[in-house]
Amino acid sequence: MPYIRRDEQGLIAAIQLEPGDGLEELPSSSQELIDFMNRMGLEQDTLQQSDMRLVRVLEDLIDLLIDRDVIRFTDLPLPAQEKLMERRSMRQSLGALDLLGGANETI
Q1: Is-contact 2 17, C-beta < 8 A?
Q2: Domain definitions of the chain by residue range
Q3: Is 53 strand, coil or helix?
Q4: Distance between CA 47 and CA 41 in Å, rounded?
Q5: Is the pTM of this model over 0.70?
Q6: Tens digit of each residue's pLDDT (9 = 90 or more) over 16-66
Q7: In angstroms, rounded to a whole number, what is the distance separating the alpha carbons of residues 63 and 84?
Q8: What CA–CA distance (Å, rounded) separates 61 from 92?
């Protein structure tokens, strides 16, 4: 059974698999526990979506700095170069798959 820690309002704040001080045992089938886990999943999805948008902003910023000769691609650490090249390649491959163009395009 999971063990939970509650906040000042009595709501679940954390879940652990091992017992500990200040933790309360709660059945896995508890609706309160299920609701908490669902909320955490939604928050995690939102954070991941935000991270993906930020990654794209950083890629565009790096491209801009390179285009304006502020930095050189080779100034970046090798692992960063490899990741950027991998993402560019994936984006180009996905773009090539979009043979009919965007939804607003008339054929």
Answers
A1: yes
A2: 1-41, 52-100
A3: helix
A4: 10
A5: no
A6: 889 999 999 988 888 898 888 888 887 788 888 888 889 999 999 999 999
A7: 10
A8: 18
